Amino acid sequence: MRWQFVRYLRYVGSWVAFSLGLSLSQSCLAVDNITILLSEDGPAYTEFSSQLSTVLSQGNSKSTVKVLILSAYKSEDLSRNANNQVLIAVGTPAMTAMAQKPPAMAVLNVLVPRHTFQKIAKQFGRNQDPHHFSAIYFDQPWNRQLGLVRATLPGRNRLGLLLSKDSAEILTGIQLAAKELDIQINVETATDDSELLPALRRLLTNSDSLLALPDAAIYNRNNIPSILLTSYRQKVPLFGFSAAYVKAGALAAVYSSPGQIAQHVAEVIQGLSSNAYLPLPQYPRYFSVNTNTQVSRSLSLEMEDEASLTRKLKSLTERAQ
Amino acid sequence: MHFLALGHILLAEKKHSIPYIHSGIHLSRRAGCVALLFSLLHQAALAGDGEESIFLDDVPVVLSASRLSQPINEAPVAVTIIDRQMIKDSGAWDLSEIFRLVPGMYVAYHADPYFSADSTVAYHGMVTTTTSDRMQVLIDGRSVYASLFGGVNWSDLPIVLDDIERIEVIRGPDSASYGANSYSGVINIITRHPAETQGKTMSMAFGKGRKEGIFRYGGKSGALSYRLTASIREDQGEDDRIKRPTSVFTFWNLNKYDNKTIHNLNLRADYQLNSADTMEFQFGYNGGPREVGEYNNVSAISRRAENHFEMLHWRRALEGGGELSVQAFHTVERVYARLKDSDGISDGDAILRRYDLEVQHTFSPFANARLVWGGSIRYDQTYAPYYLGVGDNQYLYGDFPYHLRRFFGNLEWRARPDLVFNVGGMIENNTYTGTDTTPRFAVNWHVQHGHTLRLSHSRATRSPSVYEKTYDSYWRSAEFYPGLPEMQTERVKSTELGYIGKYGKLDVDFRLFYDDYSQLIDVRNKRSAAGGNLNAGTAIMRGYELQLKAQLTDKTRLIYGLSGGGVKSDNVNGVVYSDSLPKYSHSLMLSHRVNDQWSGSLVAYQVARTKFNSTDYNPRENRGYFIDSNRRLDGKLSYQFKLGGKAAECSVIAQNLADARYFEYRHDNELPGRAVRLNFRLDM
Fold first, then answer.
1. Strand, coil or helix: A305
2. How do residues A46-82 score in pLDDT, each as one tens digit?
3. pLDDT-based confidence at B443, cuts 50/70/90?
4. In chain A, what are the domains?
5. CA B381 to chain centre
6. Superfamily of domain covering B78-683
7. How much is the ipTM here?
8. B5 touching A, CB under 8 A?
9. Which of A228, A251, A296 to mutate to test the interface with B (most CBs of B within 10 A)?
10. Number of DSSP helices (H) and strands (E) in chain B, helices first
11. Closest partner CB to A92 (pick from B50, B73, B275)
12. A208 touches chain B (CB under 8 A)
């Protein structure tokens, strides 16, 4: 009861904040100087910056967009003026640089995993002022990830997670989402590479599916063949966290592309007032679902198509917010 | 990874500028080439060192088209899957024994007394030679069907049971996919990927007449994973004396010579070149002394096998789930033998070589369709002077060449979600019989969820072995029947109706089949040659097969197989095909896991009496004889525990628990009595 009440309050709160934001953005001068700081010029980063520029240019705002790359960046490049300014730090290196040497303007971090953002913000004491050092995470909220498991494999509610021993913080919040979706979470920890297969085999004995986590100590290209093959032999499908996983043999994945995050960022920017009071760190608003029908067929799993799974997840996420 | 040095960044403060990045165009061409090559091999990171790279990186395509198995209700053929657990639970000692669990499979222990003391594994009986030459056998796509007599010498295969991931047995002809000799069925053995067999494992077995030691090491180094398995096996085979002989004559009181020592060494290495390409390398060796022969007939004074193979398999995952695969292998099967026969001491050496290259492309030509097509070339060279010395020749020297070219294709079209069509075929050209086409048409209809009907019609062939071809040349020589037409492939037209159903935790697989065999080869019988046709045999085989898999509880699994049917044949020239399919055969396996420590299984087999051809010399039978029905019971009990923190397992396995004495295939081939062995296994 109490939870529901709190959720209701949050719901109301977010609406109030949203409408307030809207009215503010209309009444005050909006942010119109946007600096994008890319960690590097890899395709994902440039996809983000070009998409953001495109979306902003389509909007009514008369913002200027400046794109910098970390390797060539000097703090003099940035304006000393905090008003009407926002810096979008793309990727962990850019975020770390901005956390270490804070610029005058507010920093919105993107393409960063949630636990990395929290770690860096804490490390450099930037977690005190989330409205000036915020993020749109790269990862998906638990209810969306577990919602995909639920929607794809109804009735198979034992979900296995394989973790390295230093990554327990990745799991923050999962139990709550699991409880809401009636999913039972089983966790196994592999301390080193030799422990990987034994831990995985233990996990497979009591799991109906596995969820890959952005834990590079486990989910790296050298381990993925072992994980995918071993789970496939046991007829236990794997859920990934990127489109590449689905191509590799995962059953499905929900993820946000850099372009989708750019869309979200553009909407955030358009909603900002001139003091660039950033919204709290949040998960990406837009996402895609990919499925591997060859794998589902091979495992004789009946599964809805990508479009209807995406629809289901959208309504699920909206309901939860 | 940065291969392109970043130049300075030119970013004007233009309004809404699209980011323009001036990258290192000034890099030298050579550096560019190196970078390109390097990036081709290591398309590692699209993203940099940031922790977000895990969301952006390419991931190696692991479950590519050829690694994914087709669910049995979508396959155009009937398939029995034997997984690792089944192999373990069966308590099988020899690879050939596992096939007793396949409905319709006839297995006779160590039946061949002449070339190698190996088991006969024949789908749907109709065994006219001990080397079950009417079935194709592949290990990781590599054909191990031997050129000399056809069929497979099971103990000569460089493989250890524990390295097998699964076995897919295609029940019925499948020349459309696997070419000639996939005539009555196909056995597809798939070994475990090295990524699944990491670490050190040691296993030892001791039992009556049997000893074995296996050591396996699986390692990984970056994108390379590999496995090395070494084993030594001592097998005393059958008892020397027959306990319940059919005759008082000495000849019928003794089993064949079948002691063997098997040294195995296997290497498999898989290298992930980049996220799309993988290279697999395999090497295998199987060697050691092997006895053959029978008392007062041909037997080996000394005989040793030396076999090895090398295989390279490149796979590239394509967009949209497609795949390109190129596989090349080389096999050498060598026998060094000194034989004793009526002529005194003979040289029984033989060398069988095979070179094979296959290219296969899988892609989706249009929506809801998948096309697999490709081609292969093969060259076999057979040297076996003693065995090819047919008729009065004691030896026929020479390396006999055999060329094979294939072109194949199969289109799988999902016309509706509940309707899958498979249309395919193989065009094949070989040195002996020229060009053949073997088509197949199949439709799988998912009548409702969990219930599928399959109707298929296919044609298949078996090409003559080198031995048969040599006989063909012999009979067609000037001194015999110069007008005798050249020998052709054996043919079969096969029609079947299958049902695959799911009732809760029970899986049902039932099929009715009607196989029309023609041009069946018989060369050893002078009547066939005199009659002007070495391909005179015909037979109609009709029957049914049932397979049940039931997960009775979380801990108990039951697998049952039943098959039955009959063969109608004119038995031309006295070659017996009638009744060569047992009227029925069953197998039942019950396995139960008591707790984390204890588990066990019971396996029962029953085969009805079966008629065989002339290889038996029982004086009371003329051409063709019956082997009585038999029953066999096997059991296994395992205890798993930790030894110094490592997983260990102790098992006791008893084959032929009831100590039944009966014959398989021949009346001088009495199955060993109760054979108990202890197995200890440690994952180090």
1. coil
2. 999 999 999 988 876 677 888 999 988 887 778 777 7
3. very high
4. 2-138+258-270 (3.40.50), 142-255+288-320 (3.40.50.2300)
5. 21
6. TonB-dependent receptor, beta-barrel domain (2.40.170.20)
7. 0.87
8. no
9. A228
10. 7, 32
11. B50
12. no
